[in-house]
Design goal:
Growth Hormone, Chain: A; mainly alpha; 17 helices; 3-stranded antiparallel β-sheet; MFS
Length: 474
Amino acid sequence: FQFRSTLHSEVMGFVRFLVLAITTLCLTQILSNQNTYNFTKICVNNETDASGSYTAFQTSLIQSSTAFGSLAASVPITILLEKFPKKFVLLGAGLISTIATALVPTMEATGFGYFLTARVFQGVAFCVTFPMAGAVTAEWAALSEHGIFLAFLTGFSQLANIYLMPVAGALCASPLGWRAVYYVMAGSGVVFFALFAVFFTDRPAEHRMISEEEKEWILKGRPEKPSKREPVPYKAIFTSLTIWGVWTSGFADILAIQFINMFNPQYLNDYLKYDVLNTGFLGAVPILVQWGFKIFAGISSDMIKSVSETLKLKVYNSIALGLSAVFFIILSFIPNSMPTLCMIILILTEGFIGFNTAGFNKCGTLHARQHAHFIMVMIVNIQSICILVEPFIVNSILTDNSAKQWAIVFWVHAVLLIGASILFLFWADSRPAIWTESLPQLQPDYTIEKADYGKDYGAMKSVMVDDVFTKEKL
């Protein structure tokens, strides 16, 4: 493969990466707040806390309740993102998440219904995460930096548990107990969102610290934006096989990720018999590897120039879904008497999922272009559905944590991952869809290839002139 640096050597600006880092921290915090119960449920003192007496159904309801909040807020958040500055929308979501998290210990002691209410509000904040990731990438990433921006911004799914699990494990094992986890998460949220309020702007042109050189680098090669927002072509999107390929891969992938988020602590603590402190630190290792793979996938996807963008999407998505499925199957045959081997395979299973950033995630932004925000909103809805159904699926199978039951859970996810990866191989396409053609669209493929859309699309080709992509009729 041929590689090329994703950063222009003459551009020394850093503001876009400052915005990237702060936004990633805020998205990470929102999901960390939402995931707190997934860990604290294993370290609650059964003798003194009501949580210890929850039934399996109540536990599933507590875990999935955030999905109700996310789904209920999906349409309002979409409207808010279109009508108001995205900075204020994320700050509002952060405020809701922080307050709800700080109140969880009090609400849990007050009653089950109050506890559920706090969890629902944690979910309300979550629905802004993926649209914000797409918006920041669209506004702040140069054309050659979309992969790395998406890698970090969608990497909050991994970073949340990398941050949460060691902190939760240490606090749960200390005299401070499980309640301290919620207070620490709320406290760090105040810090991160304060930084966001100071340093974030919706667009580079609004930032007081950015240089003209960095601004020009970010905007280089982009088409001029329309004076008003284009309407979303809902019918065309919902009848696009490429978009359905993105969404089906997203469902299988996110369901597997939710399984990891929700049940990793239980697998390590109840099945492999690690204590709470070790569960916290060991549980973060596979997710840390996954995040590393995600960053590698994002950077390498931007740097590989010798193959078409569509082929890269298919290869990276097959690695993310297909290889993870293979390791899920292998894990199903390893007994808990071999915990070290289980951990190694678990690390590989979770790690390869990180390649998703250069698979279906990137496909959605490339194919939908200016309408990518709607694709990301639907990804959030898919994630909410996964959060809603995953606890009931897994808890209905894991009645006594036996090896056979864990194997069934692994196989369910493996089959879904394999099926979705096969569909993506047939449907993936990096080229801009016909319904994006109302504006002059770019092809950040970096491999000059003929894009034959057929007579209904108007045959087009990508041409590079002085390092700027333009469109012209064949």
